[in-house]
Specification:
The complex is a heterodimer.
Chain A lengths: L2 H14 L1 H38 L5 E5 L20 E2 L2 H6 L4 E16 L2 E10 L1 H7 L6 E4 L9 E4 L1 H4 L14 E10 L2 E15 L14 E5 H8 L3 E2 L1 E6 L4 H15 L4 E4 H44 L1 H9 L4 H41 L4 E3 L2 E3 L7 H27 L3 H6 L2
Parallel strand pairs in A: 4-9, 6-8
Antiparallel strand pairs in A: 1-11, 1-12, 2-10, 3-4, 3-7, 3-11, 5-8, 6-9, 7-8, 13-14
Chain B lengths: L6 E14 L2 E14 L3 E5 L6 H8 L7 E6 L2 E2 L5 H9 L1 E4 L11 H11 L4 H14 L15 H13 L5 E5 L7 H18 L2 E6 L2 H4 L4 E6 L2 E7 L1
Parallel strand pairs in B: 3-8, 3-9, 6-7, 7-8
Antiparallel strand pairs in B: 1-2, 1-4, 4-5, 9-10
Classes of the chains: A alpha+beta, B alpha/beta.
Chain lengths: 426, 231
């Protein structure tokens, strides 16, 4: 019997039981749709994060800090932050390490920024503006005003979200505005406010996304020396180091040199390491989600098997007729598998389409409510669902595979029916 | 004296024992039968005499407990399942309950046996229409079995049985489910096919009157052939 005839026979059998076939297909549709929706959302999420990390973090730049960003996976538990402190003049030590082009210390605090009668809580970064602009030449760029190369003490450079925090055209402050920088400390039981008046020299262009040491939209930048004297300390939060290249070997040897100079108290964070952490986190989440969706597909598979066995009972006599007309056992097998293939193909196609639709609807609905639009201190990001060819063809193949595997047993039983007994079946 | 090559079916010492629950039932107890090309043979006997069992064994639908069946001089016990399937394509079956596929039209039912044999679409369609015309159903080719009378359904079944140019036609109580007037029409159709197209036919029946239409009548009783008469 020709393959086309086998499939048209299988199709005629499915058409006869439209509702039942439809419900069976629905099981496959739900499983595939769940897998596609979850994976395209999670991959879209991962893609956005990766893109943001790559823009906000030059690849030849590493951050030396006392914060451990999960770099000791599998090792013994450690305090995430040690008592060890980095100081501004540690840059001199770092500059002497080979492959280092330049390094810049960062002092980061939280302050109140007061302009007129409005106040905003923002993070403030004291940094050598000149060097910082050189390291982050693509993001630390003025949208209005200009970043002075030899800044005054009162010079202030503000991120886009500080200038326009509510995104509605009501500006908090602009270039040439005077801004009061207020730092609250405690002295015994009393709060002590220290403050000075700065002048906004530049508003940076919008960066968006997360930032690891790089330019951030909700941050105020002041000269390093001013920060040292205002906060009364030479202690810095991190030192940003630009290396000659972004090769793994360069980063590796730099990390070794840092360990030698400071002991195990500091860690070196590179964009590669951050991306590795992000992607390993996501692959764990994906395995978990796919597993759950896979269970629903398994249930669909059992549904297919169930329906095939019922169909086998109902059609025993029909199979007897086919065999009496000279149909071979393997053709009977192929007819049953053909029915499963048709159900699997339809289920996979509809499932992929509706999964993709669900992912897009989820993003649309929730981004309106701001749930999937992450707003942090450093900015925001929007997720676009991503349907990769791997997910597309994988879902197709998986749907088909489940359908065929669960149809194998009923199909095999059908093929083994004895003609006389099948014909006698009522 | 008929030459050996004209022998279509030969059954030698056929025995068939069924298990009815735990009780063994001897349906056939040593049957010898030779059928030659062009014969119209009726197997007559009361129910339970083993005539349908004999038909199933000759038609390669079932296997004997003992003995051998030769079809076109081939011992069918030596054939595997696939070869048996191929053999069945060369045997035309007509059943008491028609056994048409309900979702197919008359033409599609006739086409089905040709599709199983691997014939192309156009050839199938043409031959199915010719065959349905031969059995007198030219006007009903696109009707489904539920839209046809019992007699018409049996004509479709006969057309289907003839589709692959079978070596012989096996009919198991072909008129058992049809009123007597239509039954005699069916018998005359079968007689005509046998005479005009020289189609070897074996018909199982319990109806003495129908059996008398055949050229040769084999009488069965209790699993044995008790009489073999040529009219």
């Amino acid at each position: 019997m020709k393959i086309s005839d086998i499939f048209s026979y299988a199709f005629s059998a499915i058409k006869l039981r439209k509702l039942r076939a439809g419900l069976t297909t629905l099981g496959v549709v739900i499983g595939i749709a769940a897998i596609v929706a979850l994976l395209s959302l999670s991959q879209g999420f991962q893609g956005s994060i990766t893109a943001q990390v790559q823009t906000g973090f030059a690849t030849n730049t590493v951050i030396v800090s006392t914060i451990d960003l999960g770099s000791n996976q599998g090792g013994p538990p450690q305090a995430t932050e040690s008592d060890f402190k980095l100081f501004v003049n540690d840059t001199q030590t770092i500059d002497q390490i080979g492959n280092v082009t330049m390094s810049v210390a960062i002092i980061q605090k939280s302050i109140y920024l007061e302009v007129g009668n409005k106040t905003l809580v923002v993070s403030i970064v004291g940094v050598d503006l000149d060097k910082y602009a050189e390291i982050y030449s693509s993001t630390f760029v003025a949208e209005s005003g200009s970043i002075p190369s030899s800044p005054q003490n009162e010079t202030v450079v503000i991120g886009k979200r500080v200038s326009d925090p509510w995104e509605n055209g009501t500006f908090f402050c602009n270039v040439n505005d005077q801004a009061e920088i207020i730092w609250s400390t405690r002295s015994g039981f009393a709060f002590k406010n220290e403050s000075y008046t700065g002048v906004v020299a530049a508003v940076l262009k919008e960066v968006g996304g997360f930032s690891f040491g790089g330019t951030a939209d909700s941050t105020v930048y002041i000269p390093l020396l001013q920060a040292q004297s205002f906060f009364g300390s030479d202690e810095c939060n991190a030192i940003i180091v630009q290396l000659e290249s972004d090769s793994e070997a360069t980063i590796e040897s730099f990390t070794e040199a840092i360990k030698e100079a400071f002991g195990d108290q500091v860690s070196v964070i590179s964009s590669t390491a951050v991306l590795d952490t992000v992607s390993s986190l996501f692959s764990t989440i994906e395995i978990f989600l796919t597993g759950i969706a896979g269970i629903s597909l398994l249930v669909a598979g059992i549904g297919i098997m169930n329906i095939m066995i019922v169909s086998l009972m109902e059609r025993t006599r029909e199979i007897g007729i086919l065999k009496a007309l000279g149909m071979k056992g393997r053709t009977v097998l192929l007819i049953f598998l053909g029915e499963a293939i048709i159900i699997g193909l339809m289920g996979a196609a509809i499932g992929i389409a509706s999964g993709w639709g669900i992912a897009n609807i989820v993003v649309k609905v929730f981004s309106g409510g701001g749930l999937l639009q992450l707003r942090g201190a450093t900015g925001e990001m929007t997720i676009t669902p991503l349907l990769t060819p791997t997910v597309f063809f994988g879902a197709f193949a998986f749907g088909l595979l489940v359908s065929v595997v669960f149809a194998l047993y009923p199909a095999w039983r059908a093929s083994k029916l004895k003609p006389v007994e099948a014909l006698r079946y009522e | 004296m008929v030459s050996l090559t004209a022998l279509v079916v030969e059954a030698i010492k056929l025995r068939k024992t069924y298990m009815l629950g735990k009780v063994p039932v001897d349906a056939l107890r040593g049957v010898n039968l030779k059928i030659e090309r062009g014969e119209f043979l009726a197997v007559l006997g009361p129910s339970g005499s083993g005539k349908s069992t004999l038909l199933n064994l000759i038609g390669a639908l079932d296997k004997p407990t003992e003995g051998a069946v030769f079809v076109n001089c081939i011992d069918i016990s030596t054939l595997n399942d696939n070869q048996l399937a191929d053999l069945r394509r060369r045997i035309g079956f007509v059943f008491q309950f028609f056994n048409l596929i309900p979702r197919f039209t008359a033409r599609q039912n006739v086409e089905l046996s040709m599709a199983i044999a691997g014939l192309g679409k156009d050839e199938r369609k043409k031959r199915a229409e010719e065959l349905l015309e031969t059995v007198g159903l030219k006007e009903r080719i696109n009707h489904k079995p539920t839209e046809l009378s019992g007699g018409e359904q049996q004509r479709v079944a006969i057309a289907r049985a003839l589709a692959n140019n079978p070596s012989f036609l096996l009919m198991d109580e072909p008129t058992g489910n049809i009123d007597s007037k239509t039954a005699s029409e069916i018998i005359h159709l079968v007689k005509r096919l046998n005479q005009e197209k020289d189609i070897t036919t074996v018909m199982v029946t319990h109806d003495q009157r129908l059996a008398s239409e055949a050229k040769r009548v084999v009488q069965m009783f209790d699993g044995l052939i008790v009489q073999d008469v040529v009219n």
